[in-house]
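Ligand: iron/sulfur cluster. Inputs:
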Amino acid sequence: MTIFADMAEHWSIYADWNPWHGCTKISPGCKYCYVYRQDEMYGSEIGSNLARKTAAFNLPVKRKRDRSWKIEPGKMVFTCFTSDFLLKDADEWRRECWQMMRVRSDLWFYFFTKRIDRFMECIPDDWADGYDNVLVGCTVENQQMADYRLPIFKALPIKHKSIIVSPLISAVNISEYLDSSIEEVSVGGESGVDARPCDYEWVLDLRRQCVEKDVPFRFHQTGAKFIKNGKQYYVRRPFQLSQAHKANIDYKIDQFFVPEKVKFEWKESDYRQEELFDGLLTNKLY
Ligand code: SF4
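Predicted complex:
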């Protein structure tokens, strides 16, 4: 769930809100979860599987001294990215989060989850067909998880839906789940020293499925081990986003539900290490 955290570092219209930290592993995509990796790197004494509220729990309703909101109106708030918003251990905390989302109707809240099967037992009483300002991403990593989660996801009352295929660890066909109710499919490989390889052919196949159904597609990161034309590359962390961008295969992404078109300020240095996509596709900076 690191995709948007990475974007948030670059895009000024984004904000982060991490009401709790820690999560339990539930599917193959969790194997090398970055929350566990980061906790280990920083020598955390509390187990990564133990969810705890953070000091930022009330961040959306916090104000500055001048009484203005700490998170300025209009931002896209990436929510709960070092846990899962639908984690069972957080059930007693979530009610307050929904309230904050209601109060801050001037923000967009975006969370993605591997627990979409818990959605209906997690929503507030006044959810009806969804809050206008809440976006939900259903994460899948292989065919089995896609075939389990996406039919559930498709039937849910959610105003803004996206599918996050990440970490992409095998070829996946999601074609039967794609239609105009899906506002974006975002695809990425796995990070970390133990990362499982991501094959560019799988990425291109997902793009083909999206184009056929006219669903916006985003290739957001290569992951650490990336296979292209049968050759495996090791892509260092700082270049995993820029290399995906350099592939230049996003489709209709300007129709994404982000409230304004963002301008990603890529630096030339973001491209320097790897030559994965030189000569293959355009290298236009915009
Ligand atoms: S659901 Fe997400 S945050 Fe939780 S263990 Fe799996 S990958 Fe990590």
